[in-house]
Fold these 4 entries.
Entry 1:
Amino acid sequence: MLHDSQTTLLCVPTRFELDRLRVLAPEAVAPERWAGVAVIGFGPVAAAAAVSRLIAQRAPKHLILAGIAGTYGAASEAGSAITFGSVAMDGVGAGEGAAFVRPSTMGFPQWEGKLRDDESAVAAVFDRLDLESEGPELLTVAAAADGSAMLEARRARFPDAVAEDMEGFGVALAAAMGNVGVSIVRGFSNVAGNRDPKTWAIDDALGAVAEWLER
């Protein structure tokens, strides 16, 4: 889905990611290209709070969340970037490990109220939101997977997810509550669970993100 860049706010989670994008492709993240370029913070809570404030201050029509993520696929995917059609949230619920219970099972929505400009319906958001772009599902987590056991547990709970990030669901919920569309593009810097930064492809991943932004 195409949007007018002059009414689109570009959101990047960390200063590190934005600084690398400015080195790799300065024209893709130039402030004059967008309604604004903002660092929104690390993790779902900071990102949701920052985006809520930005929507109130700048009233964009659309948001793009851009940055790196860990793929649930093969190592060969590192360095590529994709957009997502939905985003889910893991970690909100009860228990941990195999005993973890999701909000949908508990019957407690994370949010129950109006979303977007639909005044006729009350939405119950448990742990999944649709996005404006086409693509697979992204899983938002509060802590990146530290190995194969954590990774496989998450894949068992969310079998449709192909990658994990730490901001997407918070941004998507804040945008939906603020009547703003949102797209998420993530470059795969590593296979989720691999915590050795020396093996990551951060610049390749962000370069692929920049190519998407330029298009």
Entry 2:
Amino acid sequence: MVEWLLDGLLVLALLVTAVAALWSTNLFRAVVVFMAFGVLMAVAWVRLHAPDIALAEAAIGAGLTGVLLLDAVSHLGSHSLEVQKQRGDRQ
């Protein structure tokens, strides 16, 4: 019974983080929620008795992809500030 409750909470958490990542207007928040989704997905793979896939999901899905997306967001943030400054200079 407790296992079903844990699995149900895991599914609910996966759905909530997926929707939150998709609907977030703040890019940084969306990437952080996406990384949390990757960690939860790794836990789901462990619950499905697939530890090899869980390790790959944690390392690639939450780790490497998350870091690369955070780097991209930081570059987008500095680029958008430069564009705003240029627009302000023209006006």
Entry 3:
Amino acid sequence: MILPIVAYGHPILRTIAKDIAPDYPELNQLIADMWETMYYSNGVGLAAPQINRDIRIFVVDSKQIFENMEPGEKNEYPGDEGIREVFINAHIKTLNGDDWPYNEGCLSIPKIREDVYRPEEVTLEYVDENFESKVATFTGITARVILHEYDHIEGKLFIDHIKPLKRKLLKSKLDDISKGKVKVDYRMMFAK
């Protein structure tokens, strides 16, 4: 089922999400709905707070980024071919490498894109959809998508990483989003 995406201004986007247990109700259906919602909305990642759930789950499909790159572009990200994975109860163990810029957007903040600096590498401890424990290191664009989604389960947004002056210049656009004055091709949920 395609779920509505929570828009900027909704308080759940500023909530630190909680870990869940393996018996979380209808977890498999929730994960399936998250994938369907993400693909329908043309996203490469989606976190539970974006569908109005305060739990530590996000899905990432960075493979599609690489599938849509020009052949030469792929060489800019050695060792990163993309992933399609579910992250549950994720917690960062380490961040490594230099911060580098990339133009990010967010389904919850439509029609706004900004350069965001993030580390080259992240190591996460998490469980997958079968609740098997994992510790894995990700680099390049995949690390960036993971860090963007990880921010969502920590109550942060990509605009928190841009300079205050730039954020101030975006204020009217952000206000329009929170008031529902933006048109997108997917369902949105606004703060009441």
Entry 4:
Amino acid sequence: MRERQPCVYLLASGFYGTLYTGVTSDLLARVHQHREEITGGFTARHGVKRLVWFEMHDDMATAIAREKTIKKWPRQWKINVIEELNPTWDDLAVGFGFEPLG
């Protein structure tokens, strides 16, 4: 079984596309859910499936607090944090073994 690790993440529909901020204790399972549109909702309606940024935390309370903060940020701040580590908006999920999105 995979060890759970609290994580805040940003998904995008594409380069400079629609953004989604989320929190999870299992990033790979959550990315799978978004890609397969298992939970429906905002990400499924807007085609938001590309993992463009994530940040690991020691505990879920800290991760949730960080997610709430990031959700309040202006869009440009989110773009800045993505581009700081991922300037080409690559789908980071590919590095975890996911198939590239078409």
